[in-house]
Design a protein that fits this description.
Pfam family, one: Helicase_C
CATH architecture of the largest domain: 3-Layer(aba) Sandwich
Largest sheet: 7 strands, parallel
GO molecular function: ATP binding; DNA binding; hydrolase activity
Protein name: Type I restriction enzyme, R subunit
GO biological process, one term: DNA modification
Number of helices: 38
Radius of gyration: 34 Å
CATH class of the largest domain: Alpha Beta
CATH topology of the largest domain: Rossmann fold
Helix content: 40-55%
């Protein structure tokens, strides 16, 4: 490539920077482009076109907010910003929006290949099907099942892509850093970035994140990933707005307070008959040691204790109060969110007991234990096919797209606000003709039996699960931290044996890191340094900071042993750190746990390895063992016990089934999303119907006949349309105009009622009477009149598209070759037809 400004790569052998200074400032990249990737990058400089939201295909994403979102991304990308985050409520068409985005970017020459990442195989399959439906020319590839197939859009799970990046052929990576021009992250959250962030750092691509979590609930780390201010995504379209517009249906929430799930079960409050049942139950091994329990707390209900009457009351309430279809004869599609597999099985069993006529097909458990889970999901997705009740354990909380779902049952507590919103989203989709051919889905029922709405009212942010680092990372960091205490202090480690052991273990782990692994390569300078044994002898605080933040967590080829042994290693390390830092409370907490382990191991005396340590285990249970203990003695304890702890059985709680009388303490309706008296869609239908039935209205007649309008005419028309929306009329009308993209009310009305054919013919009369025109040229003018008659308005650019281009592939310029003034006159006539519509005053 001669005569072109080169793309500039700079590197010190470890860190690489790319500077395409015709388009972007310098940026850090994971390596060098392959030859074909570099050629494509150079070609894009001259081939990529200005991004214009008008190029977005209505057939893929025609709703106003979808185009607005794409336009917002275009604005970001056009300003040399390479990342964007969309917040869109579940059911508003996130996937279709990004399909339209990919299509527009590919046609504009910005993107050749795109990668769509999702966290579950079922979501990958769903996305591939969506691309095949709406953009088949992109040749979508499911990388989970078609690893060698080529295409223009690739869809994959995060773990699969982590493995594929490292694949190479004769030393050449299949997926170079420039292989994809666009990476799309489905449900972009902190947890995804923490586990799979290496993917986004590896590919040098435009990055678009999607999330259904409301903008205020998206965590700061996610905004940081996309270089955005907290609470300010690239674009947002949330549930309340979507409900008001009529693109989603709202939940109708009922909280049902059952006594046993709220209060638990107290033996002393039971009837004599129920006490006898309590005493006859098999409570498991703990009964022998502690006697019969006197109460079971609420947290145990539906966790390991399942009560018949509780489940029966939930099912009865659902069957009586839930939305019905087929004239009220059948419960509409329903998802019951169960607490665990045993709970789900119990619900299914109780349903089958009460409704044996359905032969076990109506309600089915769909979770990771199900043999054909995807087949059950596919059947549930079909309107008239069983199952009609899906009893889900974490499988249908997200990603399932079944518009017919009209009932959700929360039969488990939810603490994550993100997950809660995703679960609510299972019911929000529109479903025309759900109840009868003329009765659409207007809302969906939510029955909360576990006080979730109360919880989120008191704790608006919810409680997110801790995103702790993997065990191997925690072990590495703890060892580095302990080494930091030992190296400067000879008192803690007089003979340096513990320091040497820690260094040997840490060095072995780093030495086993494969430099060809793509994650390791991104930290190669630090890895190579600490793969030298001498680097460990004397370390500064800065060295340890590099080990803690950069090297901890990198993949190592060093073999690991039992997880139980490594968990015990971590406990022992935490005790050593507590001792070194004089943290008595932490030390005592872990000491008690270790003493308990020693007691449990004594019961395994029949095992030779345990038999050899019996005296030591007995000594550990004496207070004198711990008096004045040193780090070296804790290390000896770790080495003696780490090989024994795998012999301890993992305790499983005995499942208990009861049939105690439950009762409903109260029922409350909750407002989760404000339900508008009239949605945007309902209002639009009424406006269209009014205009269609009032073509003889004075102002509408003037619009159709292309007569000038006065300010009074327009005010009267606006008042008429506002009244249709009742008290929210002005807001609904403003929203309708915004969604339509019309520059004025007159333009919008004309686009609905069309133009009187006589008026359209009059506007173009001189063209029709021009005897020098060929039959094709006359037909062209007639087609313009047809369009204006049907649609009322017409963009000049439409003259270069079908059906006009069907007359001549070269468009009007070629069709009217030699008659340049005719083309100009046609454009001027169209402008004249539209001139009275472009502003408020006609």
């Amino acid at each position: 490539m001669y005569g072109q400004r080169p793309v500039i790569f700079t590197t010190n052998g470890y860190e690489t920077w790319l500077w395409d200074d015709t388009l972007y400032p310098p940026r850090c990249v994971a390596g060098f482009y392959k030859q074909d990737e570099l050629a494509r990058l150079m070609l894009r400089r001259t081939q990529r076109q200005t991004l214009d939201v008008a190029a977005v295909k209505d057939s893929i994403a025609g709703r106003y907010y979808q185009k607005r979102a794409i336009g917002s991304i275009f604005a970001q990308f056009s300003q040399a910003r390479r990342k964007a985050l969309l917040v869109m409520a579940t059911g508003t068409g996130k996937t279709r929006t990004v399909i339209a985005l990919v299509d527009a970017l590919q046609r504009a020459g910005w993107v050749k290949r795109a990668l769509f990442l999702a966290d579950r195989v079922s979501l990958v399959k769903q996305a591939v099907n969506a691309f095949k439906t709406h953009l088949p020319e992109s040749s979508p590839v499911n990388l989970v099942t078609e690893k060698e197939t080529e295409g223009r859009v690739y869809v994959c799970t995060y773990p699969t892509m982590m493995g594929l990046i490292d694949q190479n052929n004769n030393g050449v990576a299949r997926f170079g850093i420039g292989h994809f021009d666009l990476v799309i992250i489905d449900e972009a959250h902190r947890s995804v970035y923490q586990k799979y962030g290496a993917i986004f750092r590896y590919f040098d691509a435009l990055l678009v994140g999607l999330t259904a979590t409301p903008r205020e609930e998206v965590d700061k780390n996610t905004y940081d990933l996309f270089d955005l201010e907290p609470g300010v995504p690239t674009d947002a379209y949330e549930l309340e707005t979507a409900v008001a517009d009529g693109f989603l249906v709202p939940p109708r929430v009922q909280q049902v307070d059952l006594k046993i799930p709220r209060e638990g079960i107290d033996y002393h409050a039971l009837s004599e008959e129920e006490k006898a049942q309590w005493e006859s139950l098999d409570w498991g091994e703990e009964v022998d040691e502690q006697g019969l329990p006197e109460r079971v707390h609420a947290a145990a209900i539906n966790n390991w204790l399942f009560n018949q009457d509780t489940v029966d009351r939930v099912l009865q309430h659902l069957m009586e109060q839930g939305h019905k279809v087929e004239g009220g004869d059948r419960l509409a599609k329903t998802i019951i969110f169960a607490r665990n597999h045993e709970h789900a099985q119990f619900i299914e069993a109780r349903f089958n007991y009460h409704y044996p006529q359905h032969a076990g097909h109506f309600a089915r458990v769909i979770d990771n234990y199900a043999k054909y889970a995807q087949s059950l999901i596919d059947d549930f997705s079909l309107k008239d096919k069983a199952p009609h009740i899906a009893i889900s354990v974490d499988m249908l909380d997200t990603g399932i797209d079944v518009p017919e779902v009209a009932n959700l049952v929360f039969f488990k507590p939810v603490y994550s606000k993100i997950k809660f919103w995703q679960m609510i989203g299972r019911g929000t989709r529109l479903c025309p003709g759900l109840f009868t051919p003329d009765e659409d889905k207007q809302d969906f029922r939510v029955f909360d039996f576990c006080f979730n709405f109360d919880f989120f009212h008191e704790h608006p942010q919810g409680i997110e699960a801790s995103s702790s680092a993997p065990l191997s990372t925690r072990l590495f960091r703890a060892r580095v931290q302990l080494l930091g205490h030992l190296q400067p202090s000879s008192e803690l480690d007089p003979d340096a044996r513990l320091s040497h052991a820690l260094i040997a273990g840490l060095y072995s782990e780093v030495a086993a890191m494969n430099r060809e692994n793509f994650i390791v390569r991104m930290h190669l300078e630090a890895v190579e340094r600490f793969q030298q044994r001498a680097a460990w002898n004397t370390m500064s605080d800065a060295d340890r900071a590099v080990l803690q933040s950069e090297i901890a967590g990198l993949p190592s080829m060093l073999e690991t042993d039992d997880i139980e042994s490594r968990l015990f290693d971590l406990t022992a390390l935490q005790m050593q750190l507590a001792l070194a830092e004089a943290d008595a409370a932490t030390f005592e907490r872990h000491r008690q746990r270790v003493v308990e382990i020693a007691m449990l191991l004594q019961e395994k005396a029949a095992i030779p390895a345990v038999q050899a340590q019996l005296a030591y285990l007995a000594a550990m249970q004496e207070a004198t063992f711990w008096g004045g203990i040193h780090l070296a003695e804790l290390e000896e304890m770790r080495l003696r016990l780490r090989e024994l702890v795998p012999f301890l059985e993992k305790k499983t709680r005995k499942i208990v089934y009861t049939n105690f009388k439950d009762e409903v303490l109260g029922m409350r309706d909750s407002v989760f999303v404000a339900m508008p008296k009239m949605t945007g869609v309902q209002y639009e239908k009424k406006v269209r119907e009014y205009l269609r039935n009032h073509l003889d209205h004075l102002v509408i007649h003037r619009l159709r006949s292309n007569q000038p309008l006065t300010e009074t005419d327009l005010q009267g028309l606006e008042q008429t349309l506002t009244k249709i929306g009742e008290e929210d009329g002005q807001t609904l009308l403003d929203g309708l105009l915004a969604r339509s993209g019309a520059p004025s009310l007159a333009w919008f009305v004309r686009s609905l009622v069309g133009m009187d054919r006589t008026a359209a013919q009059s506007a173009f009369a001189r063209f029709l009477s021009d005897r020098s025109f060929t039959p094709q040229q006359i037909r062209f003018i007639e087609m313009v009149i047809d369009q204006l008659t049907a649609r009322g308005v017409m963009a000049a650019s439409a003259l270069y598209e079908p059906p006009f281009s069907n007359l001549h592939a070269g468009g009007p310029d070629a069709l009217f070759d030699g008659k340049e003034k005719v083309i100009e006159d046609i454009f001027n006539t169209l402008n004249l037809v539209h001139s009275s519509l472009s502003s408020r005053t006609a």
